[in-house]
């Protein structure tokens, strides 16, 4: 079906059948996709071209890909948030299905022709309001800051709420008119889209690519930080304040680290960081990075391993899902999920293009309207500032639907912690700052300064055939994962040094039977390390005790470091202010190093040397408050920071020093005594 036929059916009030209208990035055409929709249970069941090098047989349970003998799209998947169940993560199951539109018709129409054909009429809606009032949302923000981030559950969390209303027009006609307004008024969107599955409509302008695969290149696009245009002439000064805002810098760095963890799971050498850049839209400016890496996984497996973006969940992601399930009593439906266009290129290779379902309205057949939005909560957040951010993010889509949203009662700290936000409302058509802010010399310098903060390891292309430390080539390492996939990034760094690395979840590593390896890395994870009743803490504490007792070469990171310190007799405490996403220069055994911290707990020491049953231990600590940055003893070492983080510019150098020292200084036999494995203190 071509666009004129499709629009004629919509205008006549007829059901045209499932379809999608897509403008992707800055493409000059609108894509028109038609086909049949069916529900599948798993991402692996989605129709897709077979991966390169396969025998051409679809995966188990897969529907055959339409047009498998030609280049182009095979299917458009509408992936709800509840699909996170495929990763075993907690969620509120709202029953929203995973639907796939199998492509039977595909056409392209020049954008100007498409805009001229789409209905140019005002959209009318009524009874607009947020399902969670401003005051209640602000209280949730306070609780998350104090009870989740403050107690070590993670570095950041995204909590959403939904603007609800009722359309006064036929749903498809209103959606088509809203699409036209978005195509005309919005700029900088990754996808501008209208998808109709036969039972539901999704229309919006998502700024953010979640993941794409083309020519074997996997790309992700973490976006964070929200700046609202404040008018010509003031924009450059205000934008520079925004780019220097500590909260906004930390927020983007944290999601960058989290998406690097995902890239480490889907690209053979992990992701290379490119940027940062400005994402300029009609009302807002965001900051963003691009991540790129070569991969060979089936695109459906790429989707599964990257559910879902930290910009809509938080980090570390597994515990972020637990927090969301605790703090959001209703399901998320499509918020935070993805649209995913699967296909093949002219050479027969799989392709994938998947934007995040944000800045998107869901319209039901009865005219019910839902516009979900969320704010990223970090240690600098203020309740009023995050309330306001949800209004700002909703503004563009609501304007296209004839609605506006503003704070119910701006608080005294409205906008605090997020520079130069202004009260949102319905914008005039086509409003926004003039394009080209990113080309201003001062802006380019500010972005370059942000890039200079990042670890060279993740910014440079790497040759996996040349280990940095030839003496480590062929040595083996086992990483015990405490539910933070920073371990995937750490594995890439250790492999780059020449080690052969395995990663095992903590549940698979019994404390008294740690698998053989030249080096055991007791990894990071969320939670309270002082807890005596927590199963994970008991298990990891037992692993650490076994490693010490048997003199096994050990490197402990963050939570692992804290448990190790507890076994060595050091007290542990929760920090007054969380150290989540903090970059610091610290003194490490005679060297000044720049490293990144993600912790709410710390060990304390009042001396630089300790006598322990496992031999003398040297402590690197903050002289002002005694917080321990690192320890090293005969055959073991621990670091409170994350050497693998993009914030650790000296991370690889630290790893080289500690790993070589641990492997060369490990005692020949077991340690003489075993310390108590009672309550001690982690992340």
UniProtKB/TrEMBL annotation:
Keywords, alphabetical: Glutamine amidotransferase, Lyase
Biased composition (Low complexity): 51-67, 428-438
Record keyword Lyase present: yes
Region (Disordered): 46-67, 403-438
EC number: 4.1.3.27
Glutamine amidotransferase domain mapped to chain residues: 478-655
Pfam families xrefs: Chorismate_bind, GATase
Lyase found in the keyword field: yes
Chorismate-utilising enzyme C-terminal domain span: 135-393
Protein's recorded name: anthranilate synthase
């Amino acid at each position: 079906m071509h666009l004129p036929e499709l629009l004629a059916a919509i205008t006549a009030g007829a059901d045209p059948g499932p379809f999608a209208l897509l403008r992707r990035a800055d493409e000059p055409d609108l894509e028109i996709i038609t086909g049949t929709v069916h529900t599948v249970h798993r991402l692996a069941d989605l129709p897709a071209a077979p991966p390169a090098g396969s025998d051409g047989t679809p995966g188990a349970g897969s529907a055959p890909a339409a047009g498998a003998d030609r280049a182009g799209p095979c299917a458009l998947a509408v992936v709800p948030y509840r699909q996170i169940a495929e990763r075993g993560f907690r969620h509120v199951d709202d029953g929203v299905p995973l639907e796939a539109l199998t492509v039977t018709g595909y056409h392209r129409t020049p954008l100007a022709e498409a805009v001229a054909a789409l209905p140019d009429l005002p959209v009318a809606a009524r009874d607009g309001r947020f399902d969670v009032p401003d005051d209640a949302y602000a209280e949730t923000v306070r609780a998350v800051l104090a009870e989740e981030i403050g107690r070590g559950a993670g570095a950041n969390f995204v909590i959403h709420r939904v603007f609800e209303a009722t359309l006064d027009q036929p749903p498809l006609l209103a959606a088509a008119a809203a699409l036209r307004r978005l195509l005309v008024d919005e700029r900088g969107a990754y996808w501008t889209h209208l998808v109709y599955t036969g039972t539901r409509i999704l229309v919006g302008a998502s700024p953010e690519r979640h993941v794409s695969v083309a020519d074997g290149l996997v790309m992700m696009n973490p976006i964070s930080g929200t700046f609202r245009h404040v008018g010509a002439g003031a924009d450059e000064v205000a934008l520079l304040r925004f780019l220097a805002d500590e909260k906004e810098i930390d927020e983007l760095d944290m999601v960058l680290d989290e998406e690097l963890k995902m890239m480490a799971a889907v690209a053979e050498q992990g992701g290379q960081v490119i940027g940062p850049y400005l994402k300029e839209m009609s009302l807002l400016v965001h900051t963003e990075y691009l991540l790129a890496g070569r991969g060979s996984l089936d695109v459906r497996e790429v989707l599964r391993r990257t559910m879902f973006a930290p910009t809509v969940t938080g980090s570390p992601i597994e515990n972020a899902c637990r927090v969301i399930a605790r703090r959001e009593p209703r399901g998320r439906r499509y918020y935070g999920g993805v649209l995913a266009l699967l296909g093949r290129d002219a050479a027969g290779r799989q392709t994938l293009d998947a934007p995040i379902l944000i800045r998107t309205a869901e319209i039901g057949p009865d005219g019910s309207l839902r516009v979900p939005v969320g704010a990223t909560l970090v240690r600098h957040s203020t309740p009023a500032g995050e309330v306001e951010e949800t209004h700002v993010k909703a503004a563009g889509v609501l304007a296209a639907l004839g609605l506006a949203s503003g704070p119910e009662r701006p608080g005294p700290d409205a906008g605090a912690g997020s520079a130069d936000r202004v009260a949102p409302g319905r914008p005039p058509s086509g409003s926004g700052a003039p394009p080209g802010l990113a080309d201003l010399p001062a802006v380019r310098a500010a972005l370059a300064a942000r890039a200079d903060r990042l670890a060279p390891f993740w910014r440079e292309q790497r040759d996996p055939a040349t280990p940095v430390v030839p003496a480590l080539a062929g040595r083996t390492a086992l990483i015990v994962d405490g539910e933070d996939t920073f371990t995937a990034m750490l594995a890439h760094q250790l492999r780059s040094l020449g080690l052969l690395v395995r990663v095992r979840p903590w549940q698979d590593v019994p404390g008294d039977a740690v698998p053989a390896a030249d080096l055991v890395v007791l990894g990071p994870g969320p939670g309270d390390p002082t807890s005596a009743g927590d199963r994970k803490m008991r298990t990891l504490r037992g692993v650490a005790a076994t490693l010490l007792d048997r003199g096994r070469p050990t490197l402990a990171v963050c939570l692992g470091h804290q448990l190790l310190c507890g076994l060595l007799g050091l007290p542990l405490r929760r920090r007054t202010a969380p150290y989540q996403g903090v970059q610091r220069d610290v003194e490490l055994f005679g060297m000044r190093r720049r490293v990144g911290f993600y912790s709410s707990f710390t060990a304390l020491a009042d001396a630089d040397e300790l006598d322990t049953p496992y031999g003398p231990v040297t402590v690197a600590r903050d002289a002002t408050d005694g917080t321990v940055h690192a320890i090293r003893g005969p055959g073991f070492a621990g670091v409170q920071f994350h050497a693998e983080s993009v914030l650790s510019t000296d991370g690889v150098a630290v790893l080289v020093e500690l790993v070589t020292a641990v492997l060369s200084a490990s005692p020949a036999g077991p340690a003489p005594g075993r310390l108590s494995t009672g309550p001690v203190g982690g992340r």
